[in-house]
Amino acid sequence: MALRDLPAAERPRERLLREGPQALADYELLAVVLGGGTAGEHAVALAMRLLREDGLFGLRQRGAAALLSEHGIGPARAAQVAAALELGRRAQTRPRRVRLDEPEQVYAYLRRRIDPEAEELLALLLDGRLCLIGEVRLARGGHSGVSIVPADVLRPAVRAGASAILLAHNHPSGDPTPSRADITTTETLVRAAQTIGVQLVDHLVIGDNSFVSMRLAGHLS
């Protein structure tokens, strides 16, 4: 019987959407990943054949290259299966939250993320414990700088549900001394963030192997 001949309610993909993935057997989940079978062998039969030796554990141990020797498995399907198995493995590991509560930590995190040849403005989105939940490149300019308005900074924070924002931009000249425009913009952003209940915890200006913290310099009061 071809998979299309099964009643719709019994097909793996439809059952997964209706009952959740936990209701499916391993071979049914694999059939969903495969997406289809071959001439004379539908997806469920193909999945059962792939799992006949040591189940999912054996399948993962074999790796993508070994799967290519199986009839009906080409590079695309081998990659799909390997990716699905690796995602399952990674989902078991809770990611370590990066805490950014000191300027030195922020500088160490960002120094290799900013292009030294052009001025860039980045926003680090933080939760209530100042742990990183997102990163947004807000603007990129040339040696003459970038322009930004408060809405451009606050919109990503609202979307991410961030409690705090940490800004950073670089000076391609290498001198991290904040300009008058840097200071004015930062003070405006502090007030704008307060109106929506978000804290601007710091604004770093990054130069050549050095930085200035606007908070430590007294510009975030």
Question: How does this structure look, described?
Answer:
There is one protein chain. With 221 residues, the protein is of the alpha+beta class. It folds into two domains: 3-91; 103-213, Cytidine Deaminase, domain 2. Helix content is 41%, strand content 15%. The chain contains eight helices and five strands. The protein has helices spanning 12-19, 26-34, 43-50, 55-67, 75-91, 103-110, 150-160, 180-195, and strands at 120-126, 132-140, 164-170, 199-206, 211-213. A five-stranded mixed beta sheet has the order 2-1-3-4-5, sandwiched between helices. A hairpin with a 4-residue loop joins β4 and β5 (211-213). α2 packs across α3 (43-50) and α4 (55-67) crosses α5. The model has no long low-confidence stretch (mean pLDDT 88).
Show the helix and strand layout:
Elements: H1 12-19, H2 26-34, H3 43-50, H4 55-67, H5 75-91, H6 103-110, E1 120-126, E2 132-140, H7 150-160, E3 164-170, H8 180-195, E4 199-206, E5 211-213
Parallel strand pairs: 3-4
Antiparallel strand pairs: 1-2, 1-3, 4-5
Q: What is the gist of this entry?
A:
The protein has 221 residues and is α+β, with helices and mostly antiparallel strands. Helix content is 41%, strand content 15%.
Low-confidence stretches: none
CATH topology of the largest domain: Cytidine Deaminase, domain 2
Count of domain modules? 2
* Structural Rg: 26 Å
Oligomer: single chain
Strand content: 15-25%
Report the end-to-end length measured between terminal Cα atoms: 72 Å
Helical stretch tally:
8
Q: In sequence order, what are the helices and strands, one letter per element?
A: HHHHHHEEHEHEE
